[in-house]
Amino acid sequence: MSLSRRHRLIAAVTATVVASAVAILTVGTSASAKGASSVADTTSVYTAKSPLPEGQNGDVVKSQPSTYNGAKATRIQYLSRDAKNKQLPVSGTVLVPNAPWSGPGERPIVAYAPFTFGMAPQCAPSKTLAGEGAQDMVSGFQGSFVNALLSAGFAVAQTDYLGPWVEGTGEHPYVMRLPEAHTVLDVIRAAQRLPGTGLPPNGPVGIAGYSEGGSAAAAAAELAATYAPELKVKGVYSGAPPADKGVLAKTLDGSMYAAFLGYALIGINQAYPEANLMGLANQAGADLFLKARQTCTLPAVFQFMFTQTSTLTKDGQPVSAYLSKPPFDKIVAENRIGNIKPAMPVMVQHSPMDDVIPVAMGKQMAKDWCDKGANVQWKDLTSFAPFFSHAMGMMTAPNDASAWLQSAFKGQPGNGNCGQF
Length: 421
Description:
Elements: H1 3-25, E1 34-35, E2 60-67, E3 71-81, E4 87-97, E5 109-113, H2 125-128, H3 137-151, E6 155-159, H4 177-193, E7 204-210, H5 212-227, E8 232-239, H6 245-251, H7 258-271, H8 283-292, H9 297-304, H10 319-323, H11 328-334, E9 346-350, H12 359-371, E10 376-380, H13 389-392, H14 397-409
Parallel strand pairs: 5-6, 5-7, 7-8, 8-9, 9-10
Antiparallel strand pairs: 1-2, 2-3, 3-4, 4-6
């Protein structure tokens, strides 16, 4: 079978699997129940005030009612910081289950760090969770994770991360460690400060995310003690984290999921404009940047699958060749996760057959934390097949995350299993 024919076959199978997954995941995740509280400004959370109001990280700038089945939902705009420590507005959602909290103590808040949803304004999870914007398999996956957390009785603080969903804030710094950690930690602060929710201002909190969200959750675990020391983080769940961007530059290049590498390059360009990444691109590379900025995840996967980055650079070298040299080698090192000991118990979960993010990457991050004395629980994620195992991992990851966080909130996260994986 020729390579092009094999690529077409994979694309056809992908479309079939995606269609099936959409049918499964959209059941029960549609937004239907209204309920929200608001602060004084209820104009669109996607419009930034000019000038931006002064405030503390996590302060709520504005809020408006949103919709979600089984929960009181409030869309918010809050303050956080980018990779250069500049304060910027970020959008997100706070969801409080309609059912009373039946667990011990106060109702916990769990920050949900979404997995890759795209770059265009219509992709923002705060929109798709409310039944707006792009509705596809990705929005179904996001809904399944949120539903699992809400079913456990947790309040959910969902961030959109920095990005164009709030007008005038620039591109999304995709999988960049500092801005994603900041936005995850600050959305918890925002949920604690949002009036009318009944949530405790200094109660127990947790963090959970998968894929992009897994690295955002892991980065937040590393930075919590210094960036948000007042938060009582009881546990962090990190699923399939892309912890080493240097490795991904090689494994994603020319693959079915080459779009994610394109997103990462946009993220680097946004967070580190001084590196002049765009200066390396030929016309095809510049065109890809422009097109990728307008896509959500699923269309991007189909549009850019099997793209070789050597066809996008002026001198024909792959992107990985540049990322191993100055100034990009420093950027890759700064965004590697595993160098700082988390101050709380963490669970890291990854499919042994992950077809997007190599399992060795998640395992190395967990081992690095173990070497620093962290309380780490490693667990293999149930795999269904060698193909699509990364996406299908979202079928079981939400319940695994919720169950482990429940034990963490009860003070029973265990002592981890360092040295056994």
